[in-house]
Design a protein that fits this description.
Elements (H helix, E strand, L loop, with lengths): L2 H10 L6 E5 L2 E5 L1 H8 L1
Antiparallel strand pairs: 1-2
Length: about 40
């Protein structure tokens, strides 16, 4: 499944997809996909 497809399903049900990478020193939110979605 594509991330964009999953995001669309979640958005259709009223939610928002957030992707986060977890490292021993902390978490990093991945925002790169937001840029791809706006290019459509």
């Amino acid at each position: 499944m594509y991330v964009s497809t999953l995001a669309s399903y979640i958005k259709a049900t009223g939610g928002e997809l957030e992707i986060c990478a977890v490292f021993p020193d902390g978490k990093v939110k991945i925002n790169h996909f937001e840029d791809l979605q706006s290019r459509g």
